[in-house]
Amino acid sequence: MKNRIVNKISALYVGDQVQMHSGVASCINQKHAVQKLAVHFDHLVGNAEADPKHHGGLDRVLHHFPREHYGQYRRWDMMASFKDAPAMGENISTVGLNESQVNIGDIMQIGDVTLQVTQPRSPCFKLNLQFGHPEFALAMQKSKMCGWFYRVLSEGNIGCDDAIYRVDRVSDISVAEAMHIYFLPEFNAEQYQRLLQCSGLAQSWVNSLSRRISDHAIEDWQMRLYGKA
């Protein structure tokens, strides 16, 4: 049974122009509003990633970010200047749906497209450059106000007037809890195993968690968070 969780999308965005931002190639500032997303299994029409090694792929075709988070980050003085959607590079912007309400593996219906939630956004140093704060990525990691990614289960179109329905729930771990577990400051094999049991979890997170358990160690986050070792 479908459960409607958002009555209407706030906005939809795409962009495929690569721009140098503080010496780093990025498409984050090239997103523009559209009335419709043309969704394929491996891409959105008119959308691209400057760094396909770390962004995009089948598990991260669409990025969904709650618009109200911008206000909270502004209240925390995490932005050097005023920024709003789509400054996170998101494709779907909504109000009233957050990381505690969405679970890993949730099956969503938007328009005639079926999607599955795969992972939280894993923040990197490019957000520090984007918002003019040296610890923006760390603040996102700690606050869990990160948005989430979808893989595409059926192709089609998403329109601005479409509602968002949850069709099925296949895990008991929310995006917020997944973010908490993945970024625990100390190694915790038991919690990693819990997260690994989530159906639909992005393969890159499966690989990373499995590697941690095998190595009995957490990878160094300095490069991701600050752009330097």
Automatic annotation (TrEMBL):
Residues 31-167 form the MOSC domain. InterPro entries: Benzoxazolinone_Detox_Enz (IPR052353), MoCF_Sase_C (IPR005302), Pyrv_Knase-like_insert_dom_sf (IPR011037), Tri_helical_YiiM-like (IPR005163). It comes from the Bacteria. PROSITE patterns: MOSC (PS51340), PROKAR_LIPOPROTEIN (PS51257). PANTHER family: PROTEIN YIIM. This is MOSC domain-containing protein. It comes from Shewanella subflava.
